[in-house]
Amino acid sequence: MVWALAPVLLASGIVGGGHVQSTELSHERLLRNFDIIVFRNEFDGRVDERLRKWVEPVRIYLDIRAGDPEILGRIVEAHVRDLTEITGYDIATVGDREAANVTVVFERDSRLDRVGSDYFSTEFDIRMVMRTNLCFGRYHSNVAYEIFKAVIVIPTDRAMSRGKLPACIVEETTQILGLPNDSEEVFPSIFNDRSIDDELTEQDRVLLRLLYDPRLRPGMPREQVLRRVGEILEEIGPVSDVSAVRSGAGSQGPR
Q1: For residue 135, which of 1, 139, 168, 203 is within the disulfide window of CB 3.0 to 4.6 Å?
Q2: pTM of structure
């Protein structure tokens, strides 16, 4: 199982006042950040030596125990459409829990113990996890390194009180696709815990496209994957992160 717990350096650097002098993302930085986000995990600090990703269609069920179902549904649906467009992968929401392989649970912070008993093993301590995380996701992969199941937990009231409900949805539903790590080294990015971004940045979109390029297969050794990613980046050519202009480089508050 893998946990997904809730700066790309710009080519020419940052000038005073938080203005971006250049928004070109170098291939070297993109390759480094792909390695950081895909093969590392902040929860246990390990480096995964094999690529993990989905091969079956992703079907997402919303277990809404707290919050407005219409609003939450709209946010999730919009992001699912975005993920599908970016990756070309088959991702959709379903109304039947039995037809789902991903469940997103929205519950009040005070009632998370019930979520723990409903979705996790008895030794799992959801309160301990939530001491240092606003929201989290957990996915499982099989012996072929294919991700086949995931659960995302979002305490609706807690996330809303910090203005991070959309960010939790975007980050966790993206990370369970096989990008589990958060790192302050990757900027601008939804995978940066000090980021002000609530949406995927252009860099995040590139990382997703790379991961779901059909030439990258589950179980491929890390070094082979990184070589292949370097080749794909050469094919893509220059990458400009327009989101860097929107985000700027000002001080970042904690998520």
Answers
A1: 168
A2: 0.85
pLDDT for residue 41 = 80
**What pLDDT, on a 0 to 100 scale, did the predictor assign at position 10?**
30
Mean pLDDT, rounded, of the chain = 87
How far is it, in rounded angstroms, from Cα 69 to Cα 227?
Answer: 44
The structure tokens listed for 57 are 């269609």
Q: Identify any residues that bridge with 107 across adjacent strands, giving them in sequence order.
A: 155
Mean pLDDT of 90-109: 98
Residues in CB range of 191: below 8 A, 6 or more apart: 37, 171, 175, 179, 181, 182, 183, 204
Following DSSP, what letter does each residue of the chain receive, concatenated? -EEEE--PPPTT-B-GGG-BS--EEPHHHHHHHHHHHHHB-TTT--B-SB--EE-SPEEEEEEESSS-HHHHHHHHHHHHHHHHHHH---EEE-S-GGG-SEEEEEE-GGGHHHHHHHHS-TT--HHHHHTS-SSEEEEEE-TT-EEEEEEEEEEHHHHHHTT-HHHHHHHHHHHTTT-----TTS-S-TT-TT----S--HHHHHHHHHHT-TTS-TT-BHHHHHHHHHHHHHHH--EE-HHHHHH-S------
> If 0-12 CB within 10 Å is exposed, 13-18 middle and 19+ buried, where does residue 185 land?
middle
Respond yes or no on whether the N-terminal peptide bond of residue 214 is cis (omega within 30° of 0): no
Q: Which of 91, 87, 89 is nearest to 210 (CA)?
A: 87
Block residue for tokens 């006042």: 17
